[in-house]
Design brief:
By secondary structure, the chain is of the alpha+beta class. The protein has three domains: about 5-125, Serine Threonine Protein Phosphatase 5, Tetratricopeptide repeat, CATH 1.25.40.10; about 130-210, Immunoglobulin-like (Sandwich); about 215-315, no CATH class. It is built from ten helices and eleven strands. A hairpin with a 2-residue loop joins strand 10 and strand 11. The longest helix has 30 residues, at about 255-285.
Length: about 325
């Protein structure tokens, strides 16, 4: 036999010497003819040389071919090592366990048991997770200490974590900070839901861009300005109308009845805009929805029009 064949034969001989009838039936090289032994030796040699060069995928293929020809538990150990090196943890665990079960007295068993324990611990750690939710959404979540930095923002945060105890901190502007101690068991997935309570000291403030606190927003202020413009316009048109309301005075001033009617109409319209603007500003200022900063365009728009035949003021916006 060549060097590889002698190596295989020596390895198998040692394995057989350590096995007892109480364990699974172990095949013998004597069960193979000379040609099969040469093929097996060649496969084993190729598998080992590729493993030494770090070509674990190729090495795995050769060890599998060898195992199909000669299903010896020691080849299972080599197959497990290849899967292990390739990061294929589930396949490595299966092969390691079969090897230990079929050949429990082999010299490689302690190392196989160590790798089984390590891979099981890793799998358990990777499957341990914590899901965090909050009502309302948009809260910032920290673990253990705010100084560690935020781990995410609700409505839902999924965190793969180690199995240990954590302090979950949930913060949102305008709400009382919530803290909770959570103990994660190995391999467990846990969900923690937080219902945040309004901070009574921040009742008149809501978060603006970047989490800063801000006041009631632009809409109430804009409506108040519109109301002020309406008051001024009503006074102006009222003065004009009063000067021409008498037909004699109108003729003396050189105006027509249509112009007098226009001044009258604009006086009433301006007065209506003043009332609506001021009343709307007061209502929005004192309503919870009016205090929130919304992404929608809430700025009212005012347009005025007037012709010799009439006139008016338009007020558009989201209220």
């Amino acid at each position: 036999m060549n060097r590889a064949c002698l190596h295989v034969a020596a390895a198998m001989t040692l394995t057989l010497a350590s096995a007892t009838p109480a364990f699974a039936q172990v095949p013998s090289l004597d069960d193979l003819d000379e040609d099969q032994q040469r093929q097996l030796a060649n496969l084993y040699d190729l598998a080992e040389s590729n493993a030494e060069g770090g070509e674990w995928r190729k090495s795995l293929g050769y060890f599998r071919d060898a195992y199909e020809m000669f299903p010896h538990p020691r080849l299972l150990y080599q197959i497990a090592r290849c899967h292990d090196k390739l990061g294929e943890e589930a396949a490595a665990l299966t092969a390691y366990r079969r090897f230990v079960a079929d050949l429990p007295d082999a010299t490689e068993v302690p190392e196989a048991r160590r790798r089984i324990a390590s891979l099981q611990t890793k799998q358990a750690a990777e499957s341990t997770s914590l899901r965090i939710k909050s009502t309302p959404s948009g809260a910032v979540v920290y673990l253990d200490d705010i100084a560690n930095g935020a781990v995410g923002t609700t409505p839902t945060i999924d965190l793969p974590l180690e199995a240990k105890t954590y302090t979950v901190i949930v913060e949102m502007d305008g709400y009382t900070t919530a803290e909770r101690t959570v103990e994660l068991s190995s391999g467990a997935s846990r969900t923690e839901e937080f219902s945040l309570e309004r901070d009574p000291n921040a009742a008149k403030l809501d978060p603006g861009p970047g989490g800063s606190s801000r006041g009631p927003g632009a809409a109430p202020i804009t409506l108040a300005v519109v109301g002020g413009i309406g008051v001024a316009s009503a006074i102006g048109f009222g003065v004009l109308w009063s000067g021409v309301s008498d037909p004699e005075a109108c003729r003396a001033a050189g105006c027509t009845s249509d112009e007098a009617a226009l001044y009258e109409t604009m006086t009433y319209i301006s007065g209506g805009v003043a009332i609506l603007g001021i009343a709307g500003a007061i209502l929005l200022w004192n309503s919870p929805s009016g205090m929130r900063s919304e992404r929608l365009d809430t700025t009212p728009r005012v347009g005025a029009w007037a012709t010799s035949g009439g006139g008016g003021v338009s007020l558009q916006g989201r209220f």
